[in-house]
C-alpha cells in the first residue's frame, strides 16, 4: 500500500504525452488543448483605430479645425490631414496616419467651417495604435494552453478558422457485479440498481473526454478478461468499477494479471478509495476503481483527472488546490489520508455529513474535497486545510 503522494507521483512518472493531434474548426475548439505555439499572422488591431465617436484631428496652433471629411467603421481612410484639419470619425474606424488625436464629440462645438475644441488634448489620446494588443509575428498562445472563449475570440480576430489541438484519449467503462440491475428493471432480493457506470461516464464527460463504450460484466473470470481486452482495443483509458478486492468473486485483479497489464500500484492509504489499482500496457492505461460510489468518484477526481491532464500536456494538472480554514475541529484516527466532501461557506470550508464510501448524497452537495494527510491526527477549528475544488456542476 502506498501513500496518496506516492500514487500521484507514479501516475506522473508513467503518463506519456499522448502526442496525437487533429485539426478542428474553432466552433469545436472550446476547452481543447493547443498542440503547437501560435504566432499572430496579423497585428491586433491591424490599423490605428479610434476608441470613440468624435473627430480625428491633425493638431494645429489653435482650437479651431476645418472639417474635411468623414470615416465610418469598416471603411479605408486615406485622408492626409494637414495641420488644423479634422474628419468626423466613429468608434473602431481607421484613423488617418497624419491625425494625432481623436477628440470626443462631447468636447467640440460645431462652427460654420468645422469644429472648435472645448478642452486641450494630448497627442495620441483616444487612438489605439496598430498592434497595441498583439503585434504581427508575436507568439500569442503556447502549446498546452486550454482554449477558452477569449482565446477563441482572438484567433477569430486573426482570421483563423481552424486550429491544431491535441487529440483527446478515449475512455471505455466496465461495471462488474452479479448484483447489478439496470434502472427500470424489477429489483430482486440482493440486487441493486447500477449507477457507477453512469457516475463514471458523466465525470469523464465533465472532464471533456469521449466515452466510446460502457459494458456491464457478470462475475466470471472469462467474461471479465474478454471485456477488458475489448476495452483496451477500443480505447486509450479503461475505467473498471468494482471487482478489484480479494473476494472469491472479485476477478478484475486476476484478469488484469492474465492480460499482462503492468501494475503500477494497488491500494492507496486513503479513505475512501483504498482498493485503487493503476496499470498500463503499452500506451493504454487502466484504473480499477473501488465499487463504492463515493470511493469511485473520489478516485476519479484525484487520480483520473491527474492522468487526463498529464496526457493532454495541460499546464494546470488535476483539481485546483486552495487552503481554507476549517469550520470545525476534526480528528483523524484512521491511520490513512482522508478525502472529505465539503462545502465552501464564506471564507471557511465545512465538512459535510454522510462521509461513508457508499454514500453519494454528500457529493451531490459538495464543491470541494478536503484532504487530510495520513500523518495528521487532528485539525483545530480555523486551521487551514488543503481543499480540492470540484468542477462546476453546470
Automatic annotation (TrEMBL):
<dbReference type="InterPro" id="IPR001453">
    <property type="entry name" value="MoaB/Mog_dom"/>
</dbReference>
<dbReference type="InterPro" id="IPR005110">
    <property type="entry name" value="MoeA_linker/N"/>
</dbReference>
<keyword id="KW-0479">Metal-binding</keyword>
<dbReference type="InterPro" id="IPR036135">
    <property type="entry name" value="MoeA_linker/N_sf"/>
</dbReference>
<comment type="pathway">
    <text>Cofactor biosynthesis; molybdopterin biosynthesis.</text>
</comment>
<dbReference type="InterPro" id="IPR038987">
    <property type="entry name" value="MoeA-like"/>
</dbReference>
<comment type="function">
    <text>Catalyzes the insertion of molybdate into adenylated molybdopterin with the concomitant release of AMP.</text>
</comment>
<dbReference type="InterPro" id="IPR008284">
    <property type="entry name" value="MoCF_biosynth_CS"/>
</dbReference>
<feature type="domain" description="MoaB/Mog">
    <location>
        <begin position="172"/>
        <end position="310"/>
    </location>
</feature>
<keyword id="KW-0501">Molybdenum cofactor biosynthesis</keyword>
<keyword id="KW-0808">Transferase</keyword>
<keyword id="KW-0460">Magnesium</keyword>
<comment type="similarity">
    <text>Belongs to the MoeA family.</text>
</comment>
<dbReference type="InterPro" id="IPR036688">
    <property type="entry name" value="MoeA_C_domain_IV_sf"/>
</dbReference>
<dbReference type="Pfam" id="PF00994">
    <property type="entry name" value="MoCF_biosynth"/>
</dbReference>
<dbReference type="InterPro" id="IPR036425">
    <property type="entry name" value="MoaB/Mog-like_dom_sf"/>
</dbReference>
<dbReference type="Pfam" id="PF03453">
    <property type="entry name" value="MoeA_N"/>
</dbReference>
<dbReference type="Pfam" id="PF03454">
    <property type="entry name" value="MoeA_C"/>
</dbReference>
<keyword id="KW-0500">Molybdenum</keyword>
<protein>
    <recommendedName>
        <fullName>Molybdopterin molybdenumtransferase</fullName>
        <ecNumber>2.10.1.1</ecNumber>
    </recommendedName>
</protein>
<dbReference type="InterPro" id="IPR005111">
    <property type="entry name" value="MoeA_C_domain_IV"/>
</dbReference>
Amino acid at each position: 500500500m502506498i501513500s496518496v503522494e506516492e500514487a500521484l507521483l507514479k501516475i506522473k512518472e508513467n503518463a506519456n504525452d499522448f502526442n496525437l493531434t487533429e485539426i478542428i474548426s474553432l466552433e469545436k475548439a472550446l476547452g481543447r488543448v493547443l498542440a503547437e505555439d501560435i504566432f499572430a499572422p496579423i497585428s491586433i488591431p491591424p490599423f490605428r483605430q479610434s476608441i470613440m465617436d468624435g473627430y480625428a484631428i491633425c493638431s494645429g496652433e489653435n482650437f479651431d479645425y476645418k472639417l474635411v471629411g468623414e470615416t465610418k467603421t469598416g471603411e479605408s481612410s486615406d485622408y492626409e490631414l494637414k495641420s488644423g484639419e479634422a474628419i468626423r470619425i466613429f468608434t473602431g474606424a481607421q484613423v488617418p496616419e497624419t491625425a494625432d488625436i481623436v477628440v470626443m464629440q462631447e468636447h467640440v462645438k460645431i462652427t460654420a467651417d468645422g469644429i472648435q475644441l472645448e478642452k486641450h488634448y494630448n497627442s495620441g489620446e483616444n487612438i489605439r495604435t496598430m498592434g497595441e494588443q498583439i503585434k504581427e509575428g508575436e507568439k500569442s498562445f503556447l502549446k498546452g494552453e486550454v482554449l477558452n472563449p477569449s482565446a477563441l475570440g482572438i484567433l477569430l480576430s486573426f482570421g483563423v478558422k481552424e486550429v491544431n489541438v491535441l487529440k483527446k484519449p478515449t475512455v471505455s467503462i466496465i461495471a462488474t457485479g452479479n448484483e447489478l440491475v439496470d434502472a427500470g428493471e424489477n429489483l430482486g432480493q440482493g440486487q441493486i440498481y447500477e449507477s457507477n457506470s453512469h457516475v463514471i461516464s458523466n465525470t469523464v464527460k465533465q472532464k471533456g473526454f469521449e466515452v466510446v463504450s460502457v459494458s456491464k460484466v457478470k462475475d466470471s473470470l472469462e467474461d471479465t478478461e474478454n471485456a477488458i481486452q475489448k476495452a483496451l482495443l477500443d480505447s486509450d483509458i479503461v475505467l473498471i468499477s468494482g471487482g478489484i478486492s480479494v473476494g472469491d468473486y472479485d476477478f478484475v485483479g486476476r484478469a488484469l494479471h492474465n492480460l499482462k497489464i503492468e501494475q503500477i500500484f494497488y491500494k492507496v492509504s486513503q479513505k475512501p478509495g483504498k482498493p485503487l489499482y493503476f496499470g498500463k500496457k503499452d500506451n493504454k492505461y487502466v484504473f480499477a476503481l473501488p465499487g463504492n460510489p463515493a470511493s469511485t468518484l473520489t478516485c476519479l477526481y484525484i487520480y483520473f483527472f491527474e492522468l487526463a491532464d498529464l496526457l493532454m500536456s495541460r499546464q494546470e494538472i488535476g483539481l485546483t488546490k486552495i487552503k481554507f480554514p476549517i469550520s470545525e475541529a476534526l480528528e483523524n484516527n484512521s491511520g490513512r489520508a482522508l478525502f472529505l466532501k465539503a462545502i465552501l461557506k464564506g471564507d471557511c470550508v465545512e465538512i459535510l455529513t454522510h462521509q461513508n464510501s457508499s454514500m453519494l448524497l454528500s457529493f451531490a452537495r459538495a464543491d470541494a474535497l478536503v484532504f487530510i494527510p495520513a500523518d495528521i491526527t487532528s485539525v483545530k477549528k480555523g486551521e487551514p486545510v488543503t481543499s480540492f475544488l470540484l468542477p462546476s456542476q453546470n
